[in-house]
C-alpha cells in the first residue's frame, strides 16, 4: 500500500559504516536489482508495455489488489479479459487471476465480479467462473477460505464505511459505531451509497 523505500542494492544492506564499506569494497558482494514499484507506476505506463493480456492484468491486479478501485480497473481492461476468455489456456489464467483477487481484495467476491464483468465481457463469463469454481470444489478446495474471504470483505466494508463517516462528519457516537459493526453487508453497502448525498448522520442512517 506504500511506495518502496528500502535499498535496491545489496551493498546498501550491509550494516557497516560508510568508511568500512569503502575499505572493504573489494571483498563485499554487491549488485543492484531492478525494482518495479507498481505503487508509483501509472496504469497508462503499465498498459504501454509490450505485454500479453495475462501479464498486463497480473501487474494491474498486484497494483490494485487491496483497492476499492480494482473493479474499475478490471472494467477498463475488458479487452484483455475477453482475449483471455477466448481460449482454454487463457481461461485457466483468468481464473488464477480472479482467484487471487478474491483472496486479497475485501471489496470484490465472485458474484460481484461476474455481475459487473459479464455485461462487458460476455454472458459466458458466468458459466466459466461457475465451471472452474466447481472444479476447485471437487479437488477439495478449502471452503473455509471462501468463508474467510467473505468475513474479510465484510470487515473491509465496515472499516471503509467508518473511515468515510469519520472524514465526513467527524468523531462518531458510540451507538453509530456499534450499529456499523453489527450491520449486514447489504446494510453497509446501502449506507455507503447514502454518504454521497448525505449532509448528516441522520441522512445516512434514516430508515
Describe it.
The protein is mostly helical and 207 residues long. It is 63% helix and 0% strand. The chain contains twelve helices and no strands. Helix 3 packs across helix 5 and helix 5 crosses helix 6. The longest helix is centred in the last third of the chain and has 27 residues. The protein is flat. About 2% of the residues have low confidence.
Question: What structural class do you assign from the helix and strand content?
Answer: mainly alpha
Q: List the uncertain runs.
A: 140-144
Order of helices and strands: HHHHHHHHHHHH
**How would you classify the quaternary structure?**
single chain
Write down the Rg: 22 Å
State the helicity in percent bands.
Answer: 55-70%
Compute the number of helices. Answer: 12
Measured between the Cα atoms of the first and last residue, the distance is 36 Å
**What is the beta-strand fraction?**
under 5%
Number of strands: 0
Amino acid at each position: 500500500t506504500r511506495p518502496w523505500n528500502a535499498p535496491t542494492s545489496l551493498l546498501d544492506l550491509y550494516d557497516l559504516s560508510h568508511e568500512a564499506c569503502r575499505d572493504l569494497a573489494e571483498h563485499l558482494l554487491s549488485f543492484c536489482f531492478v525494482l518495479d514499484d507498481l505503487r508509483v507506476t501509472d496504469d497508462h505506463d503499465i498498459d504501454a508495455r509490450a505485454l500479453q493480456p495475462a501479464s498486463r492484468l497480473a501487474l494491474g491486479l498486484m497494483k490494485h489488489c487491496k483497492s476499492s478501485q480494482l473493479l474499475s480497473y478490471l472494467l477498463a481492461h475488458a479487452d484483455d479479459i475477453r482475449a483471455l476468455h477466448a481460449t482454454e489456456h487463457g481461461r485457466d489464467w483468468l481464473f488464477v487471476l480472479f482467484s487471487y483477487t478474491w483472496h486479497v481484495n475485501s471489496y470484490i467476491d465472485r458474484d460481484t465480479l461476474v455481475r459487473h464483468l459479464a455485461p462487458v465481457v460476455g454472458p459466458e463469463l458466468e458459466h466459466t467462473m461457475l465451471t472452474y469454481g466447481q472444479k476447485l470444489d471437487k479437488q477439495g478446495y478449502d471452503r473455509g477460505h471462501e468463508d474467510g474471504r467473505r468475513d474479510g470483505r465484510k470487515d473491509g466494508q465496515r472499516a471503509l464505511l467508518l473511515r468515510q463517516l469519520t472524514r465526513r462528519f467527524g468523531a462518531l457516537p458510540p451507538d453509530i459505531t456499534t450499529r456499523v459493526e453489527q450491520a449486514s453487508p447489504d446494510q453497509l453497502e446501502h449506507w455507503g451509497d447514502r454518504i454521497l448525498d448525505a449532509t448528516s448522520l441522520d441522512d445516512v442512517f434514516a430508515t
